[in-house]
Design brief:
The structure holds two protein chains of two kinds.
Chain A (H helix, E strand, L loop, with lengths): L3 E12 L2 E12 L3 E5 L6 H8 L7 E6 L2 E3 L4 H6 L2 E4 L11 H5 L11 H18 L15 H14 L4 E5 L7 H16 L3 E5 L3 H7 L2 E6 L2 E7 L5 H9 L18 E10 L6 E6 L2 E7 L5 H9 L4 E8 L2 E2 L5 H7 L1 E4 L3 H5 L6 H6 L7 E2 L2 E2 L1 H14 L16 H13 L5 E5 L7 H16 L3 E5 L3 H7 L2 E6 L2 E7 L5 H8 L6
Parallel strand pairs in A: 3-8, 3-9, 6-7, 7-8, 13-20, 13-21, 16-19, 19-20
Antiparallel strand pairs in A: 1-2, 1-4, 4-5, 9-10, 11-12, 11-14, 14-15, 17-18, 21-22
Helix pairs in contact in A: 4-5
Chain B lengths: L1 H20 L1 H4 L1 H26 L7 H16 L3 H11 L4 H28 L5 H19 L5 E2 L5 H9 L8 H9 L9 H19 L1 H11 L1 H6 L4 H27 L1 E2 L8 H11 L11 H20 L7 H24 L5
Antiparallel strand pairs in B: 1-2
The chains are: A alpha/beta, B mainly alpha.
């Protein structure tokens, strides 16, 4: 290992109601790629923000080249050579690449405006070459792919003469090829003596790129793995503090139950063909497909968010007219939407208010909220789903991703569901909560529910589904029974291949 | 809650300074006048506040006040086709009947205006700011056109109505004990203003509506995250429409009270700028224009501050031409304090 370059010792940080970090240590060598992994809420992002000058630690010391440093702002951290690249990109889309790289550091005077622009563009060329971005510096950022935008962020970081790059989930929106390209750049930076702190949920990528892994759990150091010991199971073990023996628990019924929901020739505005399928009682049906295949649109049409342009929905062998979500809800068909922060939850409100929201019409007396029953419902659901919260009056936005997702589920479980449509139920959810959500799905199916699980996570589809529907470009590309289920078959259908 | 304590302290400060100004400021008469204005302006702040909590905004309040005041005065005078039609059809000139008809007609007009605003926002999906900005022009224009741009005075007609809605402080005998108590304190010719009593009734209704009823829950949910409310099966459009209707109806009601107090309506002037008073009162009281934040109690406190401030400057001998500047500065100060408190409270943002 290279000489210790950046050292953080005894870092602690508290937010109201949460101890985000407790006595955390971190070492980073010169030219080293150190991956920091942990469940959601383990404190990774907080630690990185402290190193990047966004937050100030409550306690602890940071030394750079054996000299203690204190960053009061992002600016100061950048001057010291530490640049944080956020998960959400921060580029001005209406400016070109060069202008973005030098944003805020334009030369004060270099002649008339045109000359100034040329000078910036010229300065940008060697940096772009270094990261292998084969584009003119005059290209508008809005015209770049997400991956290319990521590269521009890195170029910007390099132009700041940074010695340490902190990347927070850099691959979350990259394609496979863009990810590989990013890794090449990281390896190249490494050779140039630049250190990288790499935060990711994607343990497979960590296996590929990291020299060393530091694991955080509940805001503390949970352990470190040297290059030779970086393996998926080892990381998960440290992350959750226990062996996950049965990640997917699915007790399958011998034979499927009666038909609950039939979708016949359903269409919505947009490309595609009519979609037909049936959901039966006690069944978990996976729905796979690429992003943009129309899975979410289908779910939203069944639930009444999107107007139906053709076709019919039959519920318990009777036609069901769904024009608004409430029509589906009254029948017991519920949707756990794709994005819990904008669609699933009212973030500034309490756990109780969120859980009660769809049930208020039952929790009322003369149109006044029956507060006792409301509280009982919320408390019961918190217990039922093991929602970890200081109390039902906690603001939902302050919970971790996994617990937020459980609140979205609790909203519907309080209303006796018949059909649950789950759109990416475990996206951004930590391993522990994931296991619990799978167990819950299994339990609900055993109680006779029909579950449609839309997911881009193939492992999850394979592990949980009794059957799998695959969508491609707005149509149902095929259906795979349990016996025929495997990754290749799904990907073949999802990418437009023929049903085999 | 922290926010609320902040504005409450601010109110106490303003009131404290007012009491120290001079004996005139401390007088019972001044208090009576202040209470009357608080009751009056509270009506529109309440409407605007509830709308803001549900995530909407209404810039047309002032013009709705102008139109409803004009319409109200004209019907009471038996003018315009609305007034004449009623007189022709019923053949009565009975002031009680005519007064009731005028009140109902004006309130229905308010509801209609609110429906138009609300439907344009929810069904046609035009931005609320634009819809109500246009309303600001349109309704004022209609008021001036209806009245031929002349002042509509009531003279000495309709004494009974004025008694009930303005001058009779006994208010159906409800207030007799309180007024007797005030009299025993040797406060001559002072009583509880009718507008304040009416306002307190509205406040009680609003508290039940916003803080205890299912509708209130929906208002807050829609204001905070309309999409999530929609996904939870809340009929978001219906409740947004309701918020616009409530806001405009309260504005129309304000128009009625205002005519009773002024004894006339000026189509080109009555209600000018009142939308800004209404919004300022709600915002001072802790309603966020982002929606989903605020309380009835806060709106009351905000309105009170808004009414006390000009009085304060007046009593301290500051030129009344600076009145708007003081209100604006106070509002800005409140917004700055709120932001600072928020930052202290949460240590920037969590994670």
């Amino acid at each position: 290992m290279a000489l210790s370059f950046l050292q953080a010792q005894g870092i602690s940080k508290a937010f109201p109601g949460v101890q985000a970090l407790q006595d955390v240590n971190l070492n980073l060598g010169r030219g080293e790629v150190l991956a920091v992994v942990g469940e959601n809420g383990a404190g990774k992002s907080t630690l990185m923000k402290i190193l990047g000058g966004v937050y100030r630690a409550d306690a602890g010391t940071i030394t750079l080249d054996d000299r203690p440093v204190h960053f009061a702002s992002v600016d100061q951290a950048q001057k010291a050579g530490i640049v944080l690249i956020h998960q959400e990109l921060n580029l001005a889309e209406n400016l070109d690449i060069a202008a973005n790289i030098f944003l805020g550091r334009e030369p004060v005077w270099g002649g008339p405006l045109q000359l100034l622009r040329r000078r910036i563009s010229n300065d940008a060329v060697p940096i772009l070459e270094r990261i292998g971005l084969d584009l003119s510096p005059r290209t508008l950022v809005a015209n770049l792919s997400i991956g290319q935008q990521q590269m521009v962020e890195i170029a910007r970081a390099l132009s700041l003469q940074s010695r340490i790059l902190i990347m927070d989930e850099p691959t979350s929106s990259l394609t496979q090829r863009e990810t590989e390209r990013l890794f090449e750049v990281i390896r190249d930076l490494k050779r140039g003596g630049i250190s990288v702190l790499y935060i990711s949920h994607r343990l497979k990528e960590v296996e590929i790129i990291a020299d060393r892994v530091s694991v955080l759990r509940d805001g503390r150091n949970a352990g470190e793995l040297p290059r030779s010991e970086i393996r998926h199971e080892a990381m998960v073990r440290l992350m959750v503090g226990r062996e996950l023996k049965q990640f997917f628990q699915r007790t399958r019924a011998d034979k499927p139950g009666s038909n609950i929901l039939e979708v016949r020739g359903l269409r919505w505005a947009g490309p595609g063909e009519p979609v037909s399928f049936t959901l039966r009682a006690s069944e978990v049906v996976g729905m796979a497909g690429l992003i943009g295949a129309g899975r979410t649109e289908l779910a939203e049409t069944i639930f009444g968010i999107r107007p139906r342009t053709a076709g019919q929905i039959r519920f318990l062998d009777k036609p069901l007219r769904v024009r608004k979500p409430i029509d589906a809800i009254r029948a017991g068909i519920y949707l756990v939407p794709e994005d819990r922060r904008t669609q699933g939850l009212v973030l500034p409100e309490t756990v109780r208010d969120n859980i009660a929201l769809p049930s208020l019409e039952r929790l009322q007396f003369l149109r006044l909220v029956a507060r006792r029953r409301e509280r009982q419902l919320a408390e019961a659901e918190c217990r039922n789903l093991n929602i970890r919260t200081p109390g039902i009056r906690q603001t939902v936005g302050l919970l971790s991703g996994g617990n937020q997702q459980k609140v979205v589920l609790a909203k519907w479980l309080g209303r006796a569901p018949r059909v649950l449509i789950l759109d990416e139920p475990t996206r951004g959810v930590d391993v522990g909560a994931k296991t619990e959500i799978y167990a819950l799905m299994d339990r609900l199916a055993a109680q006779g529910l029909a579950i449609l699980m839309i997911s881009s996570d193939l492992e999850e589809i394979l592990g949980m589904s009794d059957r799998v529907l695959v969508m491609h470009e707005g149509r149902l590309a095929g259906e795979l029974s349990r016996a025929k289920l495997n990754e290749e078959a799904i990907m073949n259908l999802a990418t437009g291949g023929m049903d085999t | 809650m922290k926010k609320f304590i902040g504005i409450f302290v601010f109110l106490l400060l303003v009131y404290g300074f007012l009491l120290f100004a001079n004996p005139g400021a401390r007088s019972a008469e001044n208090h009576f006048n202040l209470a009357r204005r608080i009751g009056l302006f509270g009506v529109i702040s309440l409407g605007a506040g509830m709308l803001i909590i549900s995530g909407g905004i209404d810039l047309s309040v002032g013009s709705v006040v102008g139109l409803s005041a004009t319409l109200f005065a004209m019907i009471l005078r038996g003018e315009s086709w609305v007034g004449r039609m009623f007189v022709e059809l019923t053949g009565t000139r009975n002031e009680t009947v005519l007064g009731s008809y005028a009140i109902i007609t004006v309130l229905i007009t308010g509801m209609l205006i609110g429906s138009i605003n609300g439907l344009l926002v929810t069904k046609v999906r035009v931005q609320a700011f634009i819809v109500t900005l246009c309303g600001l022009f349109v309704y004022r224009g209609i008021a001036r056109w209806l009245a031929n741009d002349t002042v509509k005075g009531l003279g000495v007609t309709h004494p009974g109505l004025k008694h009930a809605l303005y001058s009779d402080s006994e208010m159906w005998g409800l207030l007799r004990p309180i007024n007797r108590a005030l009299a025993s304190l040797h406060l001559p010719q002072v009583s509880v203003p009718v507008s304040l009593v009416i306002f307190l009734f509205l406040v009680a209704a609003a508290i039940v509506f916003l803080h205890f009823s299912v509708y209130g829950r929906y208002f807050y949910a829609i204001g905070s995250n309309e999409r999530a409310a929609h996904y939870s099966g809340v009929a978001t459009d219906r409740y947004k429409l309701l918020a616009y209707i409530m806001c405009s109806t309260l504005a129309a009601f304000f128009g009625i009270l205002y005519v009773m107090q002024q004894n006339s309506a000026q189509p080109s002037d009555t209600g000018n700028f009142y939308e800004l008073y209404a919004i300022a009162g709600a915002v001072l009281g802790g309603c966020s224009l982002r929606g989903g934040e605020g309380s009835v109690f806060g709106i009351c406190v905000g309105t009170t501050i808004l009414i006390l401030l000009p009085n304060l400057t007046n009593m301290w001998g500051i030129s009344s031409t600076l009145e708007y500047t003081v209100i604006g500065a106070a509002l800005l100060l409140g917004a700055i304090l709120d932001e600072v408190l928020r930052r202290f409270g949460t240590g920037r943002s969590a994670r």
